[in-house]
Design brief:
The complex is a heterodimer.
Chain A lengths: L2 H9 L3 H22 L3 H17 L10 H16 L34 H4 L2 H17 L2 H12 L4 H7 L4 H23 L4
Helix pairs in contact in A: 1-2, 2-3, 2-4, 2-7, 3-4, 6-9, 7-9, 8-9
Chain B lengths: L8 H12 L5 H13 L1 H17 L9 H17 L8
Classes of the chains: A mainly alpha, B mainly alpha.
Chain lengths: ~200, ~90
């Protein structure tokens, strides 16, 4: 059942429909809010207030964006106006997406990246890879975790992600590449049997 | 062999981020694609990045704690009991 239908159902009093949407989105809502406020407890309050606003009809879905984009904007706006965190300065990360010691002095790979093809074809290994991806996301710095979650897990566009997190698109792309490269590195270790 | 304008692997890897997002300016994209055509290692890196993105797209959201879920269900139940269920859908 799609999100919009679940929304219509829970507004009509369907508890299971509400539960399904909460399970789907609550952790992301807290993550977005956490980006703007200074504690997880405050972020959880902002996320809860977001659901209450939707339940009460204070925020009405008009179908101009997808349900999730609409919901994420509400939480971002509410968290921004809660404004308990000083404006973040996100420096452009000067480090390369791949550690410098993987390259020789001419800038060529010392040892080529391992292929994931065999692993991807193996269902059992796929479960191991999914676990590795989850672990890698959890380990990321906050900003990278938020960007990669919104872009690659939730499938938002980079411009939507940048707008939700008050980043320039160029900066969002740099952060995204760092995050993806970090996950890639962990997967490569799994592929080589190191983790 | 290498022309002055050619890039090395380290530079290619830097460009792959914007390349994957379809945001690399045309000139840079050509330089990268020329490099990729002759470099198996960077092609493998690009394939790894694509596989990483695909896998990340399949992990789903992080698990919610039972307590967090119970708290939100309480909110829903309280709301239902104080309200006649008027709907907030436009």
């Amino acid at each position: 059942m799609d999100d919009e239908e679940l929304l219509a159902r829970f507004l009509g009093g369907d508890r299971d429909a509400f539960r399904t949407l909460v399970l789907r989105y609550q952790t992301v809502l807290v993550q977005i809010a956490r980006y703007y406020v200074n504690s997880t407890a405050t972020a959880e309050d902002v996320a809860q207030d977001t659901w209450i606003a939707v339940l009460k009809g204070a925020e009405r879905f008009e179908g101009r964006a997808s349900f999730k984009t609409w919901l994420f904007r509400i939480v971002a706006n509410r968290a921004r106006s809660t404004g308990t965190r000083e404006k973040r300065q996100i420096p452009v990360d000067p480090t390369d997406p791949v550690a410098g010691d993987r390259f020789n002095v001419e800038g060529m790979w010392k040892e080529p990246p391992a292929s994931f093809a065999d692993l991807l074809a193996d269902n059992q290994a796929n479960a191991q890879l999914a676990a590795a991806v989850r672990a890698a996301i959890v380990e990321l710095p906050d900003i990278q975790r938020s960007v990669v979650t919104l872009r690659d897990v939730e499938g938002l566009s980079t411009s939507e992600v940048a707008s939700l997190l008050d980043l320039s698109e160029a900066n969002a792309r740099v952060i995204l590449h760092r995050a993806r490269a970090h996950i890639r590195e962990l997967l490569e270790r799994v592929a080589k049997g190191d983790r | 062999m290498a022309l002055v304008k050619d890039i090395n692997c380290r530079e290619a890897v830097r460009l792959i981020g914007d390349y994957l997002e379809g945001r690399l300016p045309r000139r840079e994209r050509r330089r990268l694609e020329r490099h990729l055509a002759g470099c198996d290692a960077c092609s493998a890196y690009l394939a790894q990045m694509r596989a990483t993105i695909a896998l990340t797209g399949h992990v789903g959201p992080e698990d919610l704690s039972q307590k967090a879920l119970d708290d939100l269900m309480d909110v829903f139940d309280r709301f239902q009991s104080d309200d006649d269920g008027t709907n907030g859908m436009a």
